[in-house]
Amino acid sequence: MRGMTLTELQRIYEQPLFALLEQARTVYRAHWADDEIQLCTLLSIKTGNCSEDCSYCAQSARYKTKVKPTALMTPAEVAAVARQAQANGATRFCMGAAWSGVREDTAQFAQVLEIIRAVHDLGIEVCVTLGHLSPAAARQLKAAGLKVYNHNLDTSPEHYPHIVTTHRFEDRLQTIRAVQEAGLALCCGGIIGLGESVTDRLRMLEVLAGFQPPPESIPLNCLMPMPGTPLENQPPVDIFDLVRLIATTRVVFPRSKVRLSAGRACLSREAQALCFFAGANSIFFGERLLTAGNPTEDADRQLLETLGLRPQRASN
């Protein structure tokens, strides 16, 4: 299956908005139940003191932010949070650790493997984001019970050096190759509002469309400017830009979950409803996203009930 060119993506994206929404909704209905939303919970299992310089991230040790560093949580601590998330209706439990990448044969990595086993034993889908990853580490994660590995592109290859300088875009692609070769499902998307152009956003989709198989899930994040980071004064993303990107992503990736991710706390109920109509069918459920805020569980339940949506069942 071939990917899509930038020209083809531009042709989809630049349609009149209602035509694009109609196309996206038709694609959505052909592949997904019309009334289901996947609920995922995200937990920071190790926070702060990251050596990378991602200019959007409050966890970087290079910036003066209000994030309080914490050590890696124990398997029992994480399992307790995962158990509660499962009881609240989440079917995927995602865990993030603030470091540049996995160091194999270390006590920390062994502890991460134990955490994955503990969460997997609960019967909930397990996803982690641990930074850069070797093929051997990817295989160990899968053997421990991991289902999905998150490693976002963030933005286009061209814009990436303006956002991160401590690693290359190619480094991210190497990790993605390791993930897919190990047989793990790939969760991979990006962030908008980083000062990028529309072309950058579509170039990111062009790269994603070249992956075989395509990402199992595609999180689309709106930058939440964090005080103390280089991007703290970035203006908010226009809602119609977000809706256009979601709709285009749905058309290009008919079988991938499209996750309405960071920044949702800044969207009105009406804006979220439009994003769901455009093709988003997954959200993070819970009041925290690593270091950023998120709508409350009660607010989300009320919104889903108002829209006639129900949580997707777990696939495992």
Question: How would you characterize the overall build of this protein?
Answer:
With 316 residues, the chain is α/β, with parallel strands linked by helices. Helix content is 38%, strand content 16%. It has helices at 6-13, 17-31, 75-87, 107-120, 135-144, 169-181, 198-209, 239-252, 269-278, 297-307; strands at 36-46, 92-97, 125-129, 148-150, 185-187, 190-192, 217-222, 257-260, 282-284, 288-289, 292-293, 310-311. The strands form 2 sheets. Strands 1, 2, 3, 4, 5, 6, 7, 8, 9 and 12 form a 10-stranded parallel sheet that branches. The chain has a two-stranded antiparallel sheet with strand order 10-11. Helix 8 (239-252) links the parallel strand 7 (217-222) and strand 8. The radius of gyration is 18 Å and the shape is globular. The model has no long low-confidence stretch (mean pLDDT 91).
Give a quick precis of the structure:
The protein has 316 residues and is of the alpha/beta class. The chain is built from 10 helices and 12 strands.
Task: Set out the fold topology.
Blueprint: H1 6-13, H2 17-31, E1 36-46, H3 75-87, E2 92-97, H4 107-120, E3 125-129, H5 135-144, E4 148-150, H6 169-181, E5 185-187, E6 190-192, H7 198-209, E7 217-222, H8 239-252, E8 257-260, H9 269-278, E9 282-284, E10 288-289, E11 292-293, H10 297-307, E12 310-311
Parallel strand pairs: 1-2, 1-9, 1-12, 2-3, 3-4, 4-5, 6-7, 7-8, 8-9
Antiparallel strand pairs: 10-11
Helix pairs in contact: 1-7, 2-8, 3-4, 5-6, 8-9
